[in-house]
Known about the structure:
Blueprint: H1 2-41
Amino acid sequence: MQLVGILIAISLLLLVGLGVAALFMAGRSSRSANDDDPDSRG
C-alpha cells in the first residue's frame, strides 16, 4: 500500500509541474503576442 501512495504522490507532483510549465508558457506566448500586435497593426 505504501508503494501506491508513493506513486500517487509522484503523479500529483508531475501534474503540478506540468500545470506550472503550461502557465509559464502561456504567459510567455501571450506577452510575445502582445509585443507583436502594434507592429502588425502599424
